[in-house]
Automatic annotation (TrEMBL):
Cofactor requirements of the protein: NAD(+)
SUPFAM superfamilies tied to this protein: NAD(P)-binding Rossmann-fold domains
Single GO MF descriptor: NAD+ binding
Keyword Nuclease: no
Keyword field: Decarboxylase, Lyase, NAD
Organism from which the protein derives: Granulicella tundricola (strain ATCC BAA-1859 / DSM 23138 / MP5ACTX9)
InterPro entries xrefs: Epimerase_deHydtase, NAD(P)-bd_dom_sf, UXS-like
Coiled coil: none
Listed name of the protein: NAD-dependent epimerase/dehydratase
Domain of life assignment: Bacteria
Residue ranges of every copy of the NAD-dependent epimerase/dehydratase domain listed in the record: 30-275
BP terms from Gene Ontology: D-xylose metabolic process
Length: 350
């Protein structure tokens, strides 16, 4: 079933905040990997909106393994004459002809299912996909490339560090199979550094944390999506842990403003944390969802919180983003309401 378009207000919000930046892309071509995922859908719709509104006459070529599935999911995007679908796997796709001055490498989402069930496939997709994409960029005139990396590259955030800065040099456990996604992203950043040194291409690094918005799967491992799904269905929120881990969530329209700004304005090889610095516990998140959606569903917590223990955190420091003029503009409860409104009761299963 086709996904609904992103709300016009959200697209207008993105354009209003990024309008001066788009002149760089006038008459240019951009190549995007990962176009069918959460990030990709928002990138494409915001690109199309800016392209039409500003008459940029820019074009986007989107790598996809299945153009048919993509057309069925986003017909309002794929019908746009500025969008070209290029069939292929990110690990070995054939290079389209011509110059692409801009490139966004957003392939490989943080799939807990794939990390658990097919970790070697995940690692191959990340490493070989990044290498292939960089080879394409180096040979097709790319000036600015954005890698959507992850806050996972820092490894486990120390419990006494409330917000992790880009200068933190911690790392995942390289001998833990659960680190496959994080280590893949770390290696991808290194690949970007090597290619930037060899070619002079500007490589921008966005270390992304947690987000909320239309297109976020409600049936994956994302707590906020699961909670919205449960409230839309009117059923009890079942929490597997003790509810104490602390997270933060940035709404997708803000995410797009940050990503487009980093691509077009950020210095090369300077990583930027992308996310909200307004932290709350998972239990507090569940109650925020209930409150935002004016519900009275119950919350069941599987384990009792033990006082005095170390608190698990995944929260970025975003001072570096603030230096680019970036900030969170959509509050959490409003983000929850917009996400739920886009899905609606008929989409509660995701």
């Amino acid at each position: 079933m086709a996904a609904k378009p992103i709300a016009q207000d959200d697209l207008d919000h993105i354009l209003a905040a990024t309008r001066p930046l788009w002149e760089q892309m006038r008459g240019e071509r951009i190549f995007i990997t990962g176009g069918t995922g959460f990030f990709g859908c928002w990138l494409l719709e915001s690109f199309c909106h800016a392209n039409r509104s500003l008459d940029l006459k820019a074009c986007a070529t989107v790598l996809t393994r299945s153009p048919e599935v993509f057309r069925a999911k986003l017909p309002h995007v794929t019908d746009d004459s500025a969008i070209t679908l290029h069939e292929g796997d990110v690990r070995d796709f054939e290079f389209p002809e011509g110059e692409f001055r801009f490139l966004i490498h957003a392939a490989t989402e943080a799939s807990a299912k794939q990390a658990n069930e097919a970790p070697l496939e995940m690692l191959s997709t990340i490493l070989a996909g990044t290498q292939r994409t960089l080879e394409f960029a180096a040979s097709h005139g790319t000036r600015k490339l954005l890698l959507t990396s992850s806050g996972a590259v820092y490894g486990k955030q120390p419990s006494n560090l409330t917000h992790v800065p880009e200068s933190y040099t911690g790392a995942p456990n390289s001998l833990d199979p659960a680190s496959v996604y994080a280590e893949g992203k770390r290696a991808s950043e290194l690949m970007c550094a090597l290619h930037a040194k060899a070619t002079g291409m500007e490589c921008k690094i966005a270390r992304c944390f947690a987000f909320c918005g239309p297109h976020l799967p409600l049936n994956a491992h994302f707590a906020i999506g699961n909670f919205i799904r449960d409230v839309l269905a009117g059923r009890t929120i079942q929490m597997g842990g003790d509810g104490t881990p602390r997270r933060s969530y940035l709404y997708a329209s803000d995410l797009m403003i940050w990503l487009w700004t980093i691509l077009l304005e950020a210095p090369s090889l300077v990583p930027f944390n992308v996310g909200s610095d307004e932290a709350l516990s998972i239990l507090e998140l569940a109650h925020a969802v209930i409150r935002a959606l004016n519900s009275n569903v119950a919350v069941q917590v599987a384990k009792e919180a033990m006082g005095g223990g170390a608190v698990a955190r995944y929260v970025p420091q975003v001072d570096r983003a603030a230096e680019l003029g970036l900030r969170q503009t959509v509050g959490l409860e409003e983000a929850i309401r917009r996400t739920a409104a886009w899905y609606g009761p008929d989409k509660e299963s995701g």
